[in-house]
């Protein structure tokens, strides 16, 4: 039975790394003494070691020891043996390329289906959807595929924002971009605002946090969903 | 000798489609009675016909007849026979996928090297760089490669904007994203603000319009370049 948290962001404005989620994470990882961290998304290009140290600092507050997957000789075994897994944000293309390179995509999917608790933030949440095609990130590396873990039957758009840029900027808004996605794809997309997360327990997919989320479906009007909504109906 | 205009955007705030460029385009395409339009980027998912009609309306003002490449049975021949070429904006991934599908990338590159006047706006400018890895667009389709025409020895970031979103949004700024690109790639990137364009004549690559452009190079401080600067030094 799946046991997965997918957060829009690791950090909300005015608060430290993972701070707003810590109480939730304490419950989520209550049976874990150790956590396997996947630092592959390398936000701002920081090293795997630097990123893992940052995460370890946050999880020390709830007495969970963190080890980066790059510290293991065999990453496949590291996944298989993990008590809990966290994939941090950064660049989704870099993350997915590295997951494919190390042949981890299927291994992680199997592991999560077996009930190992998982946390994703930003890019780490993005990869839980069917594809990474609704990421906000720049395609700074070329991955072998845009397919991802498929832990939910739709795609996510993390860091969802109602307008982009300044009012007189002619670039597309986030909503424009997601609508464009639906000109070419039928997969539903959930725009997850910063401070929101999905709590997946088995088949239920509940929207958590104080904010609404915005659901986009092909050929339908976008819809605002209240916190507490079970999204299992979205397919 | 190359004869290429690469604009950040087709449309500046408060003005109609291509309006701010029309005087320049009249000069640029002065020897053309007809223009071949590449509508593949399909902004907002509009059809090739709809997009071509919009472009035809703008070019009618300077007495140039426009035909979409999709109207030709053989798109390779359409390129080879074109008097002038315009690739419009939209989604860069969709555009590049279609160019590869129709085996046009190399044909267009050769044609432009021979001196056929070209205009690109937004995605149509992006593809003139070495790769599309600094596009702002969502990866809504999976192209066979991120390599593009290589008409300039660097990459472009069209619609460059100094800040993204609202001040308390935690998503990356445009500058953050380009810096992240340089953690993994050495290709220089020019952030081209809306209202700026590059005027390429042979080896010279002159920044035009009223605004500065922002040049990013790996392991160097970003730099503001004045309008009128010849960018041939950027490699």
From TrEMBL, chains A, B:
Keywords: Hydrolase, Protease, Serine protease. CDD domains: GAT1_Peptidase_E. InterPro entries: Class_I_gatase-like, Peptidase_S51. Belongs to the peptidase S51 family. PANTHER family: ALPHA-ASPARTYL DIPEPTIDASE, PROTEASE S51 ALPHA-ASPARTYL DIPEPTIDASE. This is Dipeptidase E. It comes from Flavobacterium ammoniigenes.
């Amino acid at each position: 039975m799946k046991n997965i948290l997918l957060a829009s962001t690791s950090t909300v404005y005015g608060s430290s790394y993972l701070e707003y989620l810590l109480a939730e994470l304490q419950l989520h990882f209550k049976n874990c003494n150790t956590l396997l961290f996947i630092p592959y998304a390398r936000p701002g290009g920081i090293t795997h070691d630097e990123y893992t140290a940052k995460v370890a600092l946050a999880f020390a507050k709830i007495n969970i020891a963190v080890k980066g997957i790059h510290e293991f000789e065999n990453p496949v075994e590291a996944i298989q043996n993990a008590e809990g897994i966290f994939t941090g944000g950064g660049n989704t293309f870099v993350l997915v390329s590295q997951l494919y390179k190390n042949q981890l995509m299927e291994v992680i999917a199997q592991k999560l289906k077996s009930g190992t608790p998982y946390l994703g933030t930003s890019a780490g949440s993005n990869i839980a959807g069917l594809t990474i095609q609704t990421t906000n990130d720049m395609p700074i590396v070329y991955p072998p595929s845009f397919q991802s873990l498929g832990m939910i039957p739709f795609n996510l758009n993390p860091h969802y924002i109602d307008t982009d840029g300044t009012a007189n900027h002619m670039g597309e808004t986030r909503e424009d971009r997601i609508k464009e996605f639906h000109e070419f794809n039928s997969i539903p997309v959930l725009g997850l605002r910063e401070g929101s997360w999905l709590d997946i327990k088995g088949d239920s997919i509940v929207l958590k946090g104080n904010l609404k989320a915005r659901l986009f479906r092909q050929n339908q009007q976008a819809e605002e969903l209240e916190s507490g909504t079970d999204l299992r109906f979205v397919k």
